[in-house]
């Protein structure tokens, strides 16, 4: 498949290379060394053309790789995540009664869902709090009463994560897990 030429100068260079190839082929008998040299020259030219095309902005300053033919390269912008997209990634629910380990696993799963669904930063808290059940939704609703809804949903994910860690990972619970870990014995 021939490469697209990005400018007249590139086209002239390719034509000159082709003429040189023909001149070399006509001047000497075709040997394996000459064929190899011709191939290497053409590959080098093709790679240079490809690199030029890849790095060029063609005077437009936007990197659209417009070849001057009036058609632009396809630039895809990621689709904004909707609540349905978020739910399609099957986020885990959080009840607030499971403990420190489950909370850490829930954080990891929700962050994975953010990545997969391409969830916008401004929607992360809003979508996440919809996965709360039981004690967690009661805690969140009581927080919503202390601040306005706009303020609550304007917080970022790190702030919500920190609030949940303070609420659901009390220092005594973490200390108990540390002691349990230190006291583990290997059963033989």
TrEMBL record:
Residues 53-74 are annotated as: Disordered. The keyword Nucleotidyltransferase applies. Residues 54-74 have a biased composition (Low complexity). Transmembrane segments: none annotated. InterPro entries: Retrotrans_gag_dom. GO terms for molecular function: RNA-directed DNA polymerase activity. This is Reverse transcriptase domain-containing protein. It comes from Tanacetum coccineum. The lineage of its organism: Eukaryota, Viridiplantae, Streptophyta, Embryophyta, Tracheophyta.
């Amino acid at each position: 498949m021939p490469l697209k030429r990005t400018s007249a100068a590139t086209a002239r260079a390719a034509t000159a290379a082709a003429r040189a190839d023909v001149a070399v082929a006509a001047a000497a008998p075709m040997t394996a060394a000459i064929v190899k040299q011709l191939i290497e020259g053409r590959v080098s030219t093709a790679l240079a053309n490809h690199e030029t095309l890849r790095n060029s902005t063609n005077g437009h300053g936007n990197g659209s790789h417009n070849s001057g033919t009036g058609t632009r390269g396809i630039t895809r912008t990621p689709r904004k995540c909707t609540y349905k997209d978020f739910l399609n990634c099957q986020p885990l629910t959080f009840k607030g009664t499971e403990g420190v380990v489950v909370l850490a696993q829930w954080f990891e799963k929700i962050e994975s869902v953010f990545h997969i669904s391409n969830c916008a930063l401004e929607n992360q808290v809003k979508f996440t709090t919809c996965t709360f059940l039981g004690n967690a939704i009661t805690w969140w609703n009581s927080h919503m009463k202390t601040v306005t809804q706009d303020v609550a949903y304007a917080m970022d994910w790190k702030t919500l994560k920190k609030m949940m860690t303070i609420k659901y990972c009390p220092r005594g619970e973490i200390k108990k897990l540390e002691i349990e870990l230190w006291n583990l014995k290997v059963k033989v």
